[in-house]
Design a protein that fits this description.
The structure is a single chain. The protein is an alpha/beta fold. The chain has 15 helices and 10 strands. An 8-stranded parallel β-barrel has the order 3-4-5-6-7-8-9-10, surrounded by 5 helices. Strands 1-2 form a two-stranded antiparallel sheet. The longest helix is centred in the last third of the chain and has 14 residues, at 239-252. The chain starts with a strand and ends in a 13-residue tail after the last helix.
Length: 320
């Protein structure tokens, strides 16, 4: 298992996401059309841990606590799990202890006494919320701090606030894929490399659009957020990119999903892969074994650009 340094700690080269675990508001049923039970997910968790993928990414807002609760039941009595969860300003109370209050709720659901990585989910008010992380870091409730969906200026502002107390940002988590390279164009990935910050890329598979499982003949589940984003018109535009991904994959005996993940690793990022089936763990294992050439990376990026497809989530703003 390849690893990456997060400050002084070794973490897997791929993190596993639980956005689609559990139902409810912003849960797996609403976003992905999934209705997954603990019985469905437990074997996936066990297979991942057996393979060395022990960094799990969740958030209080995923299913409004449902995702954290399921993960917490799986991780009971295990000391080999790394937990990454998030403070979402939009669901916080309007008082000074709102960050700690939400963190305490997360820790209770997860059954742990600290978060290995605690993220500010979006930059609703950098000056207001970032300082609230300082006492949590100093008390040990939060080991490493990250910011998500922040642009370069917002990242620098948050870093400056923490630096004033002798602390630092350890991680940035943004949407980054072959179809959405805004963080790269804005200089965020270079900034992270220069400052020893780990860049976590989410939606590297574009919610399944880059897995070759969906097409005009096999569309996404209707009535879901991803079904609306990747409609039949968009899926047609992606056909040439999928063809290039298939071709490159054939050289490595790898699927298009595995190639998309391998690309994000080759770009110096730690992808967060949503896992709901055993096959997703196999994808992660295989992706870590694929080392793409510079030519292949260039071919993939050229085909992605040619497709003209760039899907930005409703919660996202441009990075540059």
């Amino acid at each position: 298992m390849k690893s990456v340094k997060l400050q002084n700690e070794d973490i897997p080269s791929i993190a596993l996401g639980t956005w689609s675990w559990g139902t409810g508001q912003s849960g797996g049923n609403a976003v992905f059309g999934n209705y997954l039970t603990e019985a469905d997910l437990k074997p996936v968790f066990e297979a991942a841990m057996d393979a060395g993928f022990n960094l799990w990414d969740t958030a209080a807002v995923y299913g409004m606590g449902a995702s954290e609760s399921i993960l917490g039941r799986f991780t009971q009595n295990r000391i080999d799990v790394l937990i990454s969860t998030k403070f979402t300003p939009q669901i916080a109370g309007d008082h000074d202890d709102a960050v700690e209050e939400l963190l305490d709720g997360s820790l209770k659901r997860l059954g742990v006494d600290h978060a290995d990585i605690y993220w500010i989910h979006n930059p609703a008010d950098v000056k207001r919320w970032t300082p609230r992380l300082i006492p949590l870091m100093k008390s040990g409730k939060v080991k490493y701090v990250g910011v998500s969906n922040h642009n370069l200026n917002e990242i620098k502002k948050a870093a400056s606030i923490l630096r004033g107390e002798g602390l630092e940002i350890s991680a940035v988590q943004n949407h980054y894929s072959l179809l959405y390279r805004s963080s790269e164009k804005a200089g965020i990935i270079d900034y992270c490399k220069e400052n020893g910050i780990v860049f976590f890329s989410y939606m590297v598979l574009e919610q399944g659009a880059l897995t070759d499982k969906y097409s005009t003949q096999h569309p996404f589940p209707s009535g879901t957020r991803r079904g609306e984003a990747f409609n039949s018109e968009v899926l047609v535009k992606l056909e040439s990119l999928i063809h290039v991904m298939r071709e490159i994959g054939s050289r490595y005996n790898a699927s298009t999903a595995q190639i998309a993940i391998a690309w994000s690793i080759a770009k110096g990022t730690v992808p967060i892969i949503g896992v709901t089936r055993l096959g997703h763990i196999e994808d992660a294992i295989k992706a870590t074994e694929v080392t793409l050439t510079a030519q292949e990376i260039g071919d993939l990026e050229a085909a992605a650009k040619e497709s003209g497809v760039e899907i930005r989530g409703s919660w996202e703003k441009p990075m540059h």
